[in-house]
Amino acid sequence: MEADLKSLRIDDSLKTAPPASRWATRWILAGVALFVLFGVARVAWERLNTATEVQVIRVVAAAPVAGSADRLILNATGYIIAAHKIQLMAKVMGKVSWIGVEKGDRVREGQAIVRLEDQEYRAQLEQARGQLAALEARLQELLNGSRPEEIAVARANLESARADLVNARVSVERVKKLASENVFSRQALDDAQARYDAQTARTASLEKTFELVRIGPRQEQIEQVRGQIRQARGAAAFFESQLDSTIIRAPVGGTILERNVERGEFVTTSFASDRGAKGYVVALADLRDLQVELDINQNDFARLGSKQRGIITTDAYPDRRYDGFIEEISPQANRQKATVQVKVRVVSPDDYLRPEMNASVAFLAASLAEDPANPGNVSARPVIHIPASAVREGAVYLVYDGKAVRRAVKTSTTTAAQALRVEDGLAGGEDLIVNPPPELKQGARVRPKQG
User: What does pTM read for this prediction?
Assistant: First the structure.
């Protein structure tokens, strides 16, 4: 037994690992260390070289323009609006069965936009048309008068009544004679006389009936039916209009700004809540008829006048300029804001302009006499406006070769909200960083935001 237990002891010579195993362990540890070192280096490199994402706009110089900088009397900011925006409503209630436009589609005047289910309106129209047809047939019958067959029947009835009257007269005379001879009783005479009187009345009635059939209907009857026909025609026209109104058409040519319904939704004839029936189907406007809506401070309002010219620019496309003039001045001021609303028409709008875009208008004074040495009174200094949020501690940051470059500028305030006029430091055409991050430094790598 002891011999068996001794044979189960572990040989100490096997505890030492072979040389090949020790080298494998060293290679594995070295690989892990190298991998960790590579990851740390990569993270450090990305932190040092990652570009900060910033909002960038192009600096636009508003000069030279025809008219010197002295002619620029006021700058104001507002929003582009459609001069005539239409919320197209239905004239009848119903469920949408088809809609043929999407937001942004251009439509022509009279183009079908939405169709409503029309089964009920078609049934009402058919009913009205049936009533009209029946009344027209009745009128024609009255105008044609009695047919020869009807006159013949009336004459035959009259002749029969006259024959019966003759027979009744003979009968009453006979009974009267026999009653006088006491052959018939007084009661028989009274009965014969009653039959004679009744036949006389019947004959007189049939004579009048025959005369009416022969003459035809009265003029009052004809006029009554004609009045009923006019009423039926009005009802048919109304239901036809109702049926036609189930097709909602564009009242003017323009662009679809908003699509408010989907197939299967119920449309009513008045404005409704979002949870119920829809009050209008689409909103559209002619984007060739645009205005800039401005709120002018009352202190500056005296500088402006009707038809005054201005230069329009937008934040989205600051390098594009549009001519405009004051088309509408509100007849009343806003007491809370101390402003007067002014609308400036865009003379030649294009596809770059959209309603609700931010826009700025530089109003110009009336034309001055031209200086022969400076035709058009062109200013030597460009007029540049930048957002106030771009200036930090008297300087702005520009983008050159993917890096932020700090540049000192001299600015002055304007009447435009959140805008400054650059007196020195920029010439136009630079890429300006708007709302620079607080941690942004000179030479930092930056990249413009997309979209």
Answer: 0.52
